[in-house]
Amino acid sequence: MKKVSSIMFLTVMLLVSGSLSANAFAAAPAQKVTCKVVYNSWYEPSLYTEAVILHYGVNGWNDIKDVPMTCKYGYDENHNFKVWYEADVEVNENDTIDYCFHILYNRGGAEGFWENNDGNDFHMVAK
C-alpha cells in the first residue's frame, strides 16, 4: 500500500506542477500607451517652416514611422511667446522610442534639416 500511495502522490504532484507552470509562464499581452513627443521651436509655420515631421521607431529603430506634428502657440510663465510642435504616438508600455525631427523649410525651395540631438537621436521609455 505504501508504494501505491507514493505513486499516486507523485502523479498528483506532477499534474499540479504542470498546470501551475503553464499558467505561471503565460505571457501577458503588451499594454499600449500613448506618449506625447514635443519639439520646442522658434520656427512658426508661416514664417520659417512648412512642417515638422516626427521620425520615430521603437527598440532600436524598428517599425519606423513619420508623423506630421501639430504646431502650438502660447506663453511661458514670464509671458514670453512660445512655439512648439507635438505628436502622440502609440507604442507598447516600456518600449524605447527612438526619434528625431525633420524640419521642412518654407523658404525658396530649401530642403530643411534634421534635428537629431547632434547625431545621438532622442530616446524615451514609454510609460
From TrEMBL:
Domain Carbohydrate binding module family stretches: 32-127
Pfam families per the UniProt record, alphabetical: CBM53
Record-level Gene Ontology MF annotations: hydrolase activity, hydrolyzing O-glycosyl compounds; starch binding
SMART domains from the UniProt entry: CBM_25
Assigned keywords, A-Z: Signal
Entries under InterPro entries matching the protein: CBM25, Glyco_hydro_13_lg-like_dom, Ig-like_fold
GO biological process, one term: carbohydrate metabolic process
Protein name: Carbohydrate binding module family 25 domain-containing protein
Organism: Vallitalea guaymasensis
Taxonomic lineage of the native organism: Bacteria, Bacillati, Bacillota, Clostridia, Lachnospirales
